[in-house]
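Model it.
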Amino acid sequence: MSADAAEQRPPGATVGVPRESGSGERRVALVPKVVERLRSKNVSVVVEPGAGLGALIPDELYVEAGATIGDPWSCDVLVKVAPPTAEEIGRLRSGSTLIGFLAPLTSPETVAALREAGVTAFAMESIPRISRAQSMDALSSQANVAGYKAVLLAAERSTRFFPMLTTAAGTVKPATALVLGVGVAGLQALATAKRLGARTTGYDVRPEVADQVRSLGAQWLDLGIDAAGEGGYARELTEAERAEQQKRLEEAITGFDVVITTALVPGRKAPTLVTAKAVEGMKPGSVVVDLAGETGGNCELTEPGETVVRHDVTIASPLNLPAGMPEHASELYARNVSALLELMLDDGGAVAPDWSDEVLAKSCVTREAE
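Modeled.
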């Protein structure tokens, strides 16, 4: 395309990047490298002043990438990390598009407010888990961060070494770590604990993931319960299955120095995997890191967002662990957002979603025409 033709090319979409308002949220929805990519597709990007500071990205880097520093709320598309507040929804322009984590299953009032505001909204957690959408799977990208950080937290809180140490004073046995729920976060936790030298074991109610656990050098804890569900998630257990699972887990958990739990059921309270009785049976100084605190927790003694000691066992339930690694978490999330956004752009860079596309249809939670 000649320079004259480029100048005559109609402007594409404008994409706004606000500063996240949530307490402790340090991530940002787009990073400079992704801004450069979007600019090459005739998309203009407006970044709110200081939007990237939590992720250690100064405004100057956005400007160098081709973005404008200004008010993002009047743009055609607004991209966020956390769900918008009521005040933020009030700032969105009717007819605009919102992309971000929106918690449609647990916060229907947010979806209702977006619909009332005339906003077309795409929830990153509603991206279908199909091969074609892997580059947009923000749940997985952020779960990788959480699984990694969970192990570092466990190692910090533990009173024991993770690796085996051979010293002049004798040999120290390696710590034993059990990961309950081996989706993306759980697999990353197993891999990270293994790198730190722990003896690792994984458990999930989906027996088909056993080979993935073993491929990481971990052992598989077989309790004889199968709860494979749809979309890569486990189905909810029956009462009888849950009781049997808890009984067998209580016996197994007491033999581990570290237990990391990651089990979630979409739209429901997290299942209880570590009972108070199991915690009481663990060795003093052991650690439980519960990654399901935002939906009630997998441990019966969990206090979401807090670290407590019960029966001489430390129970940590950090919320929003990815925000603790904002640089890489933002980089991964920005790639996810960009991949989804590019799917809905036409050749000129304007927003023109093809509603027959499975990814767009399933991730959209409100449409302007509704």
